[in-house]
Write a structure and sequence with these properties.
The protein is about 45% helix and about 15% strand. The strands form 3 sheets. It has a 7-stranded mixed beta sheet with strand order 4-10-9-8-7-5-6, with helices on both faces. The protein contains 15 helices and 15 strands. Helix 4 runs parallel beside helix 12 and helix 14 packs across helix 15. The chain has 2 domains: about 130 residues, Aspartate Aminotransferase, domain 1, CATH 3.90.1150.10; about 230 residues, Aspartate Aminotransferase, domain 2 (3-Layer(aba) Sandwich), CATH 3.40.640.10. The chain has about 400 residues and is of the alpha/beta class.
Length: about 400
């Protein structure tokens, strides 16, 4: 790059990222999202996807989206509050609310936009937000943008959270938490968090991005998993992971949904998602509800991985969900491990700081019902070989 470029300082930062082993690169995928992909021109067995139920390429969803596009076209053309709110959007909102057992629901384009919209609409300068230190970046960014005072407590430390709530003079209090933590795969202590919110007059925002479709007997997410029901709960889930499509929704009390429709800027000031996506999601919900066998198979894969790995230096952290973090430690070794797997036809991403804490660089193994037991056994065998090869 030209030294006189106005962006030369940015290039220096990029070079430092690369030297630190923190530079991210995109991979080029061809074809449908499945357990086996063509990535950068090579066939690989992928353990990268959040398509936990294997629905992203399901023929019923593909046909539903095609029918939806034939009926409503390929774009909504306006925001929901102008002329973008199609009948398919409306039917999906009603179906989602019913599915998770909440009075109402509101669609958003992405989970990131949902979290930003909710938090900035509900709290401001004289309010307080309480957040688990391992929350997703969208929740952290939302808290900063809201201008409320932000109080972060140690991961899953309910006692620390109670101390913060008990000493807060804030007008409004919002506790926000991932249900399943995206880099660790563990589940938040939601019954205890809800009890604290009841005691200290706080709202509880649950980001169920990685629980919706996976947890609960019928895939209704963390609310079904813990049998939680409270008007204080603000429930958010994404629709591009286990549901296999795209988007997100917020569910809760009628007053909450009506208020967000008027004040959530990421809802008001953006074009609605294509109605064809809503058509595909309407087809996905019955498959999720009836997906008991898919979830049982997914649990078998989790058990196979956890029971089969016997590593000496690398550590598989505790997780009962499809997110299985294999802690490597150093950035370079995590990258080397990921590259070793890729050279042997298996794709697993290396996750490094600042996404995870320093010294906890890892391979983030994501399991899907689209995998077979043989796929997981091959991963186990290759991981054992990788650890041995990189120790030399």
């Amino acid at each position: 790059m030209n030294a006189n470029s106005p962006f030369s300082n940015l290039q220096a930062e990029l070079e430092q990222r690369e030297a630190d082993g923190r530079l991210r690169r995109r991979r080029l995928v061809d074809g449908m999202q499945q357990s086996r992909l063509e990535v950068d021109g090579a066939a690989v067995l992928s353990f990268c996807s959040n398509d936990y139920l294997g629905l992203a390429s399901h023929p019923e969803l593909v046909m539903a989206m095609q029918r939806g596009a034939g009926e409503a076209g390929v774009g909504a053309a306006a925001s929901h509050l102008i002329t973008g709110h199609h009948r398919l959007h409306h039917e999906l909102e009603m179906a989602l609310a019913s599915f998770v057992g909440r009075p109402g629901a509101l669609l958003f384009s992405t989970g990131y936009m949902a979290n930003l919209g909710v938090v900035t609409a509900l709290v401001g300068r004289h309010d307080a937000v309480f957040a688990d230190r391992l929350n997703h970046a969208s929740l952290n960014d939302a808290a900063v943008l809201s201008r409320a005072s932000l109080h972060r407590y140690a991961h899953n430390d309910v006692v620390a959270l109670e101390g913060l709530l008990a000493n807060s003079p804030a007008k409004r209090r919002l506790v926000m938490v991932d249900s399943v933590f995206s880099m660790d795969g563990d589940i938040a202590s939601l019954p205890q968090l809800l009890e604290l919110c009841e005691r200290y007059d706080a709202w509880l925002l649950i980001d169920d991005a990685h629980g919706f479709g996976v947890l609960g007997q019928h895939g209704r997410g963390v609310l079904e998993h813990f049998d939680l029901c409270s008007p204080r709960i603000i429930y958010m889930a994404t629709l591009g992971k286990a549901a296999g499509v795209s988007g997100a929704f917020v569910a809760g009390e009628p007053e909450l949904i009506a208020y967000l429709m008027q004040t959530a800027r990421t809802y008001v000031y953006t074009t609605a998602t294509p109605p064809a996506l809503a058509a595909a999601l309407l087809a996905a919900l019955p498959l999720i509800e009836q997906g008991v066998a898919r979830r049982a198979h997914l649990q078998r894969l989790i058990d196979t991985l956890r029971g089969g790995l016997a590593l000496r230096r690398w550590r598989l952290d505790a997780s009962t969900t499809p997110i299985q973090p294999l802690i490597i430690g150093h950035n370079d070794e995590a990258l080397d491990a990921s590259e070793y797997l890729r050279e042997h036809g298996i794709l697993v991403p290396a996750i490094r700081p600042p996404t995870v804490p320093q010294g906890t660089a890892r391979l983030r193994i994501s399991l899907s019902a689209a995998h077979s037991v043989a796929d997981v056994e091959l991963l186990i065998e290759t991981l054992h070989a990788a650890e041995g090869a990189l120790a030399q």
